[in-house]
Amino acid sequence: MDQIMVEKLIEKAKQASERAYCPNTERPIGACLLTNSGMIFTGCNIEISSFAGSLGAMEVVISKAISEGANGIRMLVNYCEEELCFPTGGEREFMKEFVDKTTIVCATKGHYEQFQMRELLPFSVKDA
User: Fold this and answer.
1) Could you tell me what percentage of the chain is helix, strand and coil, using 3-state DSSP and rounding each to the nearest 5?
2) CATH classification (class only), 3-127
3) Alpha helices (H) in the chain, listed in sequence order
4) Which residues have C-beta within 8 Å of that of residue 32, sequence separation ≥ 6?
5) How far apart are the first and last CA of the chain?
6) pLDDT tens figures, 42-89
7) Radius of gyration of the chain (CA)
8) Where do the structural domains in the chain lie, given as residue ranges?
């Protein structure tokens, strides 16, 4: 994936983070997803008082894409302004259901790192 596209997706994830609802952690996180066909989706974390019912940004963006009929996820971006943040364990299990060879970018202001799903979740339930 070229640098310009990665930066475009990071900017969209950053914009999505501005819509986050996070009264508990006060840590807005945005996500962006690029499909194999070039469609782009965005999402953000949505927290409720029961953390178990909260949704991570990656869960939201994947749900939006799947519910709109997208298949074949090419890249996922997770963005947090304050620091490099990674998807939670629950998000990783959710992601594993829909991505395998997808590039996953964890980004913050001025810095990002790229991963593959097997690096973020090396021994998943789906692999068992």
Assistant:
1) 35, 25, 35
2) alpha beta
3) 3-17, 57-67, 89-98, 117-120
4) 9, 10, 12, 13, 16, 40, 41, 42, 61, 76, 77, 79
5) 30
6) 999 999 988 788 999 999 999 999 999 998 999 999 999 999 999 988
7) 13
8) 3-127
Contact predicate 35/71, CB 8 Å: yes
Phi and psi of 54, rounded to 5°? -75, 155
Q: Which two tokens stand for residue 98?
A: 């829909």
In the sheet with 73-80, reading across from the earlier edge strand, the strands are: 40-44, 29-35, 73-80, 103-108, 111-116
3-state secondary structure of 72: coil
> Which sign does the torsion angle of CA 122, 4, 8, 36 carry?
negative
Please indicate, yes or no, whether the overall pTM of this predicted structure exceeds 0.85. yes
3-class secondary-structure state, position 115: strand
